[in-house]
Specification:
Number of domains: 3
Bound molecules: adenosine-5'-triphosphate
Helix content: 25-40%
CATH architecture of the largest domain: 3-Layer(aba) Sandwich
Shape: globular
CATH class of the largest domain: Alpha Beta
Strand content: 15-25%
Low-confidence stretches: 1-7, 514-524
Length: 524
């Protein structure tokens, strides 16, 4: 292992003029950057700036159209993830690819080539997890693990291949503040061993905290490089988006007092052995109010979203009331017709069909609620012009950046697709909005725009539920906050009287009345 003080030595990785073109769009336009040994290097940029495209070229998933990758002084061509790993480049993806019914060791074994003998995997995984402060039981079933623990499996299986460069894509978006602190300790240790890290994140506070250098991309080009520790969150955001990022202003609840979202003893059995059951959930949201539901992923958030949206119905009609009607037994289309909008967490395959154009995705979500506008004549034929007008309106309002006029959803960057899906709902005249993770993977400028739009919707008299793991977001936009843990929801409390520490406690499963922080929650 190399020592940490060789940051000034020859770069581990140097990119010269790396370019990737999709049709007429230069997703990466002559990108040059260097990563030194023992450096945590942030890759920043607004949605669609080209970050994922760049790292896909580094990990052998996409072939560059021009430019050069120089690894330890030698030009290389990386034509597969296998080739990347062989060189010493590892990647921890944002979305985990784990089999829930298998153990930690079995999952690790599946992803490795023959370099680690199968009989040694559990033992080596245990040693690595202990050495790097990533507690993990190789014999545990993945289904029983928290999201943070699942991420540790991904990190450990990357480390098993002894990489010199580790690419991390939005690693903290699924972690509690305490788990994120632990991850930062692991990253410090990796850095101290001379390993380098390429760190993609929209969370600028953590970039300031742990990164040595940052390269900023905009429209596929490098537009700046800096030492993030010398910057403020605002100056980093400005570099990314090319202008100031507006603060969201929430204001007092200006509604008329009507209850628009209500659940009464909402209980649902777990749908699969790995799902969470909902237990006696009582939730009340008034007109003009934003209620945030915080919690660590996998504690019943998607089950609650499904029950509120009507993707899963309940046996009691009054278990869910929306817009003043008992809707527990009604499906999603009937609920949409009552003026309710829903944005699920998963964009591909749930919020949008990846292989369909944006305009077709518009029809899929709004064919019933906008039947008068979208369908014409006695035969109910699709009015393409009207659909396109609505699609274009959303693209404009949310500043959706795309290549081509009406691309497939799969051709949008993650953040831009999220903007489109949010905009498709916000463009309707809603009285109720239920949204799960509204700004996951969305850049600072777009996140502020989405949050302001949610707040403005509430100001217009709608009731909003925002399910979010992002505590900054929760505090920025909510009037009240409740926490979900193991399928139970705490009573909502006014945001202005809650502390982060108390929320972290509730997220970790402490009883609502607890006012001391248990040791686990302190772990740093
Ligand atoms: N397969 C593809 N076909 C066509 N265009 C694509 C494809 N993949 C990406 N793009 C386009 O390339 C540009 C860069 O996308 P990329 O995913 O690299 O951005 P990003 O910086 O990672 O954004 P985000 O923060 O939203 O993930 C975007 O305009 C996107 O629409």
């Amino acid at each position: 292992m190399q020592a940490s003080d060789n940051r000034s030595s020859a770069p581990l990785l140097a990119l010269a003029g790396l370019t990737k073109i999709f049709g007429t769009l230069k997703a990466c336009d002559a990108i040059s950057l260097e990563i030194a040994p023992g450096e945590i290097h942030a890759l920043l940029g607004e949605n669609g700036a080209g970050k994922s495209t760049l790292v896909k070229m580094l990990f052998g998933v996409l072939a560059p159209d021009a430019g050069q990758i120089v690894w330890k002084g030698e030009p290389v061509s990386i034509n597969s993830p296998f080739a990347a790993r062989h060189l010493g480049i590892g990647m921890v993806f944002q979305h985990f690819s784990l089999f829930e019914a298998l153990t930690v060791a079995e999952n690790i074994a599946l992803s490795l080539d023959d370099s680690v003998p199968i009989g040694q995997i559990a033992e080596r995984a245990r040693a690595l997890s202990e050495g790097y402060g990533l507690p993990l039981d190789p014999d545990a079933l993945v289904a029983d693990l928290s999201v943070g623990e699942r991420q540790r499996i991904e990190i450990v299986r990357t480390l098993l291949q002894d990489p010199q460069l580790i690419i991390l894509d939005e690693p903290t978006s699924v972690l509690t503040p305490q788990e994120a602190d632990r991850l930062f300790e692991t990253l410090e240790k990796l850095r101290s061993e001379g390993r380098s890290i390429l760190y993609i994140s929209h969370r600028l506070e953590e970039v300031r905290r742990i990164c040595d250098r940052a390269t900023v991309l905009r429209h596929g080009k490098v537009v700046g490089a800096c030492d993030p520790r010398q910057e403020t969150v605002a100056s980093l955001a400005r570099m990314m988006v090319g202008g100031d990022v507006a603060d969201v202003t929430i204001g007092a609840n200006a509604g008329d007092g009507r209850v628009l979202i209500e659940t009464r003893r909402l209980s649902l059995p777990a749908r699969t052995p790995f799902a969470v059951s909902l237990k006696d959930i009582d939730l009340t949201v008034h007109s003009g109010e934003v209620v945030a539901i915080a919690g660590v992923a996998g504690n019943g958030q998607s089950e609650l979203f499904d029950a509120l949206s009507g993707e899963v119905t309940t046996s009691r009609a009054d278990a869910v009331r929306l817009s003043g009607q008992d809707v527990g037994r009604k499906g999603i289309t009937e609920r949409r017709l009552l003026g309710c909008g829903f944005v699920p967490e998963e964009r591909h395959g749930h919020g949008a069909v990846s292989q369909m154009k944006l305009s077709d995705n518009m029809v899929l979500a709004r064919h019933a609620s906008d039947a008068k506008t979208f369908l014409g004549g006695g035969l109910g034929l699709l009015k393409r012009d009207a659909v396109w007008a609505a699609t274009e309106r959303v693209i404009k309002a949310m500043d959706v950046r795309k290549s081509g006029v009406d691309p497939h959803a799969s051709a949008l960057s993650g953040g831009n697709l999220q903007k489109f899906i949010m905009g498709r709902e916000l463009d309707r005249n809603l009285s109720v909005l239920i949204v799960n993770q509204p700004t996951w993977g969305v850049d600072a400028g777009a996140a502020s725009r989405i949050r302001q739009a949610i707040v403005d919707l509430a100001k217009s008299g709608a009731a909003v539920v925002v399910i979010s793991q992002d505590l900054d977001e929760v505090f920025e936009i909510a009037h009240s906050i409740a926490v979900i843990h193991h399928g139970r929801l705490s009573a909502s409390e006014p945001a202005r009287t809650l502390t982060r520490e108390r929320i972290g406690l509730l997220m970790g499963g402490a009883a609502p009345e607890a006012d001391t922080v248990p040791e686990a929650a302190h772990a740093r």
